[in-house]
Amino acid sequence: MINLLPDNEQRMVDKEYELRVRILYLLGILVLIAFAITLLVPSFILTFYKERAFAQSPLPPPTETPEEREELSKDIAAAQLLVGALRPEKKVMQPSEIISLILKHKTRDNSITLLSLKKKEEDKAGNTMTISVQGKARNRQGLLSFTSALERETAVQAVVVPVSQFAKDTNIDFSFTVDVNIAYD
Q: CA 182 to CA 151: how far, in whole Å?
């Protein structure tokens, strides 16, 4: 449609339109706030008076007998047994998670050629896994930083590196074991 108004009057019409829209938004917000206050104030007042009445009323003396108290204790003990039975078992780390844990700390100075996972035989519960790691380290410092980073992991119980692995300065063929606690909450 062709606009027959001059530019300055067209701007004035646009400003008036924007002003009216803003006024409608503000009016809507005010109505919403008034509606919310109308609904919430009675519940606040009711809560205030109920709290005051509760604070002023004395608590009735306990009317339970020793037999009832003993029965209640038995019921609580039975409920605790049920809750213990429903408690989930500990989660177990999957082999892929264990491998990721070790590879996460491998630096560019180290290359891993073999990872071997097996359950620790001394552990009756089966919560510990021993991982044999073999590879090649570019230098002694790279191997030391790799094993130190593994020792700082919370799931790692022990990192056993033979002292002979640190005899050479460069191009070290290494082999060490990592004991990992695979059960966690």
A: 15
Decide: residue 48, CB within 10 A, 0-12 exposed, 13-18 middle, 19+ buried. exposed
pLDDT of residue 84: 75
Please state, in angstroms and rounded to a whole number, the distance separating the CA atoms of residues 7 and 148. Answer: 75
CA torsion sign for 93, 94, 96, 99 is: positive
Q: How confident is the model at residue 124 (pLDDT cuts 50, 70, 90)?
A: low
Cβ atoms of 114 and 133 closer than 8 Å: yes
- Kindly report the pTM of this predicted structure: 0.49
164 and 152 Cβ atoms separated by less than 8 Å: no
Domains and CATH numbers, the chain: 91-184 (3.30.1360.100)
Q: Which two tokens stand for residue 148?
A: 């130190």
